[in-house]
Design goal:
8-stranded mixed β-sheet, 13 helices, 13% strand, elongated, binds guanosine-5'-diphosphate, Signal recognition particle receptor FtsY, GTPase activity, cytoplasm, signal recognition particle binding, AAA+_ATPase
């Protein structure tokens, strides 16, 4: 897959190439081999715990399959990585959930600069291409710039944006948007929010209020609370995720800027340490550079 191939070029140069060179120098599966493997995984930001878990599982698997040749060992590694990247609770979990009837609402959370607005723009574009009617809500009323930025995406992708002046109550923007989505029969409402982790209590209250307003109008919504994380921030992204999990029921992760990092291993850390499914990945700045997360394509992209 071209997008994954291009988007993971940087990760491939470190993670993939290191694994490949580890295998190229392969003589025998001994403890040194597993030590080197562990080190490679840690350097690729899969996280210490995850790296140890992977090499332990690989050790057993290699023994079980009696893999002795380079080819056999490399097959075990690739297969194991795909398995690890597959979401817990299988495929169902990794997909975005849409309402069967009435508007679907996705709430986007995440700190400034992680790529939240860009993701909303890209997703609006993609949903629109599949024939869905999309509405955006500028729920980050804290910064005038954020409202204008979402409005700009709305113009670019040609979908309407519900907005109010800066400093308006975000819940009132969302209320108007949900009402409009219902009366005008939009299929999907994408809600931007302010992710000010500086004040966790306020953030929690704000997100709770927004969710309440949505649920009162549409009992099954929001169908997703998507947390955007910047892959280039490595382990910091994990810390952010833990903090957001404390303030709101996150249903999935959007991992942005994977094209800008050599540490594609972060996906594994998110899966194994946070138990949250990665639902979407940002692989570049173009409109179609947002992809559903696909473990097989991802691992293929890593190994090139
Ligand atoms: P927000 O503050 O969270 O809404 O972040 P923005 O959507 O404004 O994005 C911040 C910057 O990251 C912008 O320059 C985007 O073009 C860039 N960006 C977002 N997603 C991606 C991605 O997947 N790949 C790359 N390379 N850049 C991205």
């Amino acid at each position: 897959e071209k997008k994954y191939d291009e988007g993971l070029a940087k990760s491939r140069q470190t993670f993939g190439d290191k694994l490949n060179s580890l295998l190229a120098n392969f003589r025998t599966v001994d403890e040194d081999f597993f030590d080197d493997l562990e080190e490679t995984l840690i350097e690729s930001d899969v996280g210490f715990e995850t790296a140890v878990k992977i090499s332990d599982e690989l050790r057993q698997e290699v023994k079980l399959k009696n893999a002795k040749t380079k080819q056999a060992v490399s097959e075990v590694i690739i297969q194991k990585l795909i398995e690890l990247y597959e979401q817990e609770g299988a495929d169902e979990d990794a997909k975005l959930h849409f309402a069967t009837d009435g508007p679907t609402v996705f709430l986007f959370v995440g700190v400034n600069g992680v790529g939240k607005t860009t993701t909303i723009g890209k997703l609006a574009y993609q949903l629109k291409k599949t024939g869905k009617r999309v509405l955006l809500a500028a729920g980050d009323t804290f910064r005038a710039g954020a409202i204008e930025q979402l409005a700009e995406w709305g113009r670019r992708v040609e979908v309407p944006v519900v907005q109010k002046p800066a400093r308006s109550d975000p819940a009132s923007v969302v209320y108007d948007a949900v009402k409009r989505a219902k009366t005008e029969k939009f299929d999907v409402l994408l809600v931007d929010t302010a992710g000010r982790l500086q004040n966790k209590v306020n953030l929690m209250k704000e997100l709770e209020k927004i969710s309440r307003v949505i649920t009162r109008e549409i009992p099954t919504a929001p169908q997703e609370v998507l947390l955007a994380l910047d892959a280039t921030t490595g382990q910091n992204a994990l810390t952010q995720a833990k903090q957001f999990k404390d303030v709101t029921p996150v249903s999935g992760i959007v991992l942005t800027k994977l094209d800008g990092t050599a540490k594609g291993g972060i996906v594994l850390a998110i899966r194994n340490e946070l138990h949250l499914p990665v639902k979407l990945v940002g692989l570049g700045e173009q409109l179609d550079d947002l992809q559903n997360f696909d473990p097989e394509k991802f691992v293929a992209g890593l190994f090139g």
